[in-house]
Every structure is written in C-alpha cells, then in structure tokens.
Design a protein that fits this description.
It is a single chain. The chain is an alpha/beta fold and about 290 residues long. The protein has one domain: Aldolase class I (TIM Barrel, Alpha-Beta Barrel). It has ten helices and ten strands. The strands form two sheets. It has an eight-stranded mixed beta sheet. A two-stranded parallel sheet has the order 3-4. Helix 10 links the parallel strand 9 and strand 10. The longest helix is centred in the middle third of the chain and has 14 residues. It is globular and about 45 Å long. The termini are far apart. One of its GO terms (biological process) is protein lipoylation.
C-alpha cells in the first residue's frame, strides 16, 4: 500500500498579546468629531490607516487630517491606505480643513497626506495653503505636518514646510535593511536627507519607526544614530500591526520592556524626545512634541 503523507500544517500565527488590546471608540466627544469629519467631507489617517488609538484621540476631540485625497500613488507593504491613480485634487480643501479645525476647537492639529508622485509639486501648494489658512482661522492652534517622501523634489519640500507649522515630521517607517520589503518605492538615505534639509531651515523635526517587522537591535541602534546625525529631534516607536491579510505579516510582537529600552537608548544617543510603546503612532501625544527645544 502506498504511504499517505499527512498534509503540511502551517504554523499558527502568534496571538496578539494583552498589551495590544484597545478600547472601541465611543462617547459624545468621539461622536462630535465623527460628525464634523463627515459633514466637511474630510479624510483622516485615523480611519484610512486603521489607527488603534482613534478612540482615545477622537474621544479627546482631536484627529489627524489627511489632505490630497485618500488614494496613494505608492504601494507600501505595511499601509492600509488605498493605492492607485488619484483623481481628487481639491484646491478648496485647505479652507475646509481649516474651518473644521476651528469648529472642533483643536489646540494641536496634525496634518498628513498620501503620496502624490504624479503631481509636479507633490501637492506642495495645497500643503502650504492648509497650514496658512489654519493659522489664519485658529492662530492659537499649533500644527504638526507629517509629510511624505517628496522623491528629492526639494523645492516642493521648501514650500510644504514654509507655512508656519511648529513640527515637521517624515516617517522613516523601518530600518535600512528592510526598505525594499517595507517601502519598495522609498529610499532610506533619501528620507534621511529630507529630515536633514528640514532641520537645516530651522524646523523642529520628527520621525517614526515601526517595530516587529524583523529588525534587529543593532539595526535599530544604527537607525537612531543615523537620525541623530541628520538632525532629528523627536522619534516615535510603535508596534507594527498587519492591517489586512494582503499586507506584511508581523514578524514579532515587541514586549513593552524593549520599547522602554529603545526609549532610553534613543535619548542616550542624542534624541531630544522619544515616544515609545506598542500602541504609539506618529500622532500619538503629538501635542507634547511642540515644546521640544529646537
């Protein structure tokens, strides 16, 4: 009789540890933000990026606005934002975002965008007007802009960061060795240069890295050293969570103790502020970063 070999069994996926549990978004403050976002036809990275802190942040009356549409020209393997050929380019968007921020009474606003590689100026004019009009309507509101990779269009970068925002952020996302896997259309050195150029014009600089993609401790130390060498002030470190089955799987769930270790390492290596924890995302506790000395 032929020997019947058993079917191979795929290894079971690691379950999310207890420290990654989040509360569902509820409450009147959350509902108020939900209504304003819907009424003004605004995009938020909170929704598009499946952020685990949406309940906490929206419950506090804050949100991270995403301008220039909700379709990205990049296809990063970690990101839940839709990829394709964008059709939306609304020159009235800066007014709508500024009015919504004013209506919400936001004390600190975070503004980000999808990549718009097909636009000659990468959407820089919309970026600039959004910051300027927000400042005009809400002069007491501080602003962080989380700017994507401009693909070395440094004139576009100069326009994007000239509106008067207090913090300019650009996320590295991962260590250098994983760029081809995680950010296939990005370049590690180019993102470092974007941060360096931002610092050279006197801006408060910020970046973020996801952990649990397969990076080693030594690679993390090198990334922090590279960021310090290129003028970074503020670093956020958080756990990567797979948004859908089509995206990269989590290589490892990082224990909170290691996040605490990386925070101490980052400060010791010259960073001025490190926000580090499993559920930390780019805009988490962003209002605290405005006071970091330049």
């Amino acid at each position: 009789m032929p020997i019947i070999q058993p079917e191979p069994v795929a290894p079971a996926k690691a379950r999310k540890p207890d420290w990654l549990r989040v509360k569902l978004p509820v409450g009147p403050e959350y509902a108020a933000v939900r209504r304003l976002v819907d009424e003004h036809k605004l995009h938020t990275i909170c929704e598009s990026g499946n952020c685990p802190n949406m309940g906490e942040c929206w419950g506090a009356g804050t949100a991270t606005f995403m301008i220039l549409g909700n379709v990205c020209t990049r296809s990063c393997s970690f990101c839940a934002v839709a990829t394709g050929r964008p059709t939306e380019y609304d020159l009235d968007e800066p007014r709508r975002v500024a009015e919504a921020i004013q209506l919400m009474g936001v004390k600190h606003a975070v503004i980000t965008s999808v990549n718009r590689d097909e636009l000659k100026d990468r959407g820089a004019s919309v970026w600039y007007e959004t910051v300027v009009q927000t400042k005009r309507l809400s002069p007491e509101t501080t602003i962080e802009t989380l700017i994507p990779d401009v693909k070395a269009n440094w004139d576009a970068l100069d326009t994007m960061i000239a509106g008067g925002q207090e913090v300019v952020s650009h996320n590295m996302e991962t260590v250098g060795s994983l760029y081809r896997l995680v950010r296939p259309q990005g370049k590690y050195d180019r993102s470092l240069e974007q941060i360096r150029r931002t610092k050279e014009v006197g801006r408060r600089t910020k970046s973020g890295i996801m952990l649990g993609l397969g990076e080693t401790k030594d690679e993390m130390y090198k990334a922090m050293d590279d960021l310090v060498a290129n003028g970074l002030d503020i670093l956020t470190l958080g756990q990567y969570l797979q948004p859908t089955k089509r995206h990269l799987e989590v290589a490892e769930f990082i224990h909170p103790d290691l996040f605490a270790h990386y925070r101490e390492e980052g400060l010791a290596r010259g960073l001025k502020y490190v926000e580090s924890g499993p559920l930390v995302r780019s805009s988490y506790h962003a209002e605290r970063h405005v006071n970091v000395p330049i």
